[in-house]
Design brief:
The chain has 110 residues and is mainly alpha-helical. Helix content is 65%, strand content 0%. It has one domain.
C-alpha cells in the first residue's frame, strides 16, 4: 500500500483534485495482481494521457511503457488500449459498488 501511495504522488494531476477513478486504482493492484509499475501506468492511462506523455513525465522510454502495457493487456484479457481503459473502469466501478464481494470479481469480467 505504501508503494501505491508513493506512485500516486508521482502521477502529477493537472487539477488540484485527483479524479475519483485514480483514487481507486489500488483496488486494481490487488485484484489483478499488478506490479507497482503496471498500476502506475494504469492510473496514468486512466487520466487520459498517452504513453508518450507519460514517458516524458516519468523519464521512461516508450519501449518500457509498451512492455508494461502488454503485461496489462495480458492480465486484463484485452488487446487495445481503449479496450483496456473500458475494462479498468468496469472493474473499478464493480469493486467500489460491492466491496464485500471481491472474491472472484475478476471472473465476472474475463
Amino acid at each position: 500500500m505504501v508503494s501505491y501511495i508513493k506512485f500516486l504522488m508521482a502521477v502529477p494531476m493537472e487539477s488540484s483534485k485527483t479524479p475519483p477513478v485514480v483514487q481507486e486504482v489500488s483496488e486494481l493492484h490487488a485484484l489483478l495482481r499488478l506490479t507497482d509499475a503496471e498500476t502506475r501506468l494504469a492510473a496514468g492511462l486512466l487520466t487520459g494521457k498517452s504513453l508518450d506523455s507519460l514517458g516524458r513525465e516519468w523519464h521512461l522510454s516508450r519501449e518500457t511503457l509498451k512492455t508494461q502495457l502488454r503485461s496489462l493487456f495480458r492480465k486484463t484479457c484485452t488487446h487495445r488500449q481503449s479496450e483496456l481503459i473500458v475494462r479498468l473502469i468496469g472493474l473499478l466501478n464493480k469493486s467500489t459498488k460491492a466491496p464485500e464481494n471481491r472474491e472472484g470479481l475478476e471472473n465476472q469480467y474475463f
